[in-house]
Write a structure and sequence with these properties.
Elements: E1 6-7, H1 8-21, H2 31-48, E2 52-54, E3 60-63, H3 69-80
Antiparallel strand pairs: 1-3, 2-3
Helix pairs in contact: 1-2
């Protein structure tokens, strides 16, 4: 089932806040830099994979399909260096 649309700027702000809370030393973790990277690099690749769709003005996205996404996330966790938080944490 598709999700609700979220603006790319809102997504970038959320990522910047998450990155800051994790204590990242990334020089490009301000919301505008993240938004540019999302818009021009990351989101088009995710859209090409059929996981998200851009809104009519390409300034928002929505999740298209979750089938198989859980397995993908599980398999890529070691590559990204992140692990899921347990439900009781």
């Amino acid at each position: 089932m598709p999700s609700e649309e979220i603006s790319i700027s809102t997504l970038a702000s959320e990522i910047a806040q998450w990155d800051k809370a994790k204590g990242s030393t990334n020089q490009n973790n301000d919301p505008k830099s993240i938004e540019i990277a999302l818009h021009h690099t990351h989101l088009p690749k995710i859209a090409d994979a059929g996981i998200i769709a851009f809104g009519p003005n390409k300034d928002s996205i929505k999740l298209q399909e979750l089938n198989g996404l859980g397995q993908f996330l599980t398999e890529t966790e070691p590559i990204d260096g992140f692990s899921r938080v347990a439900a009781n944490d």
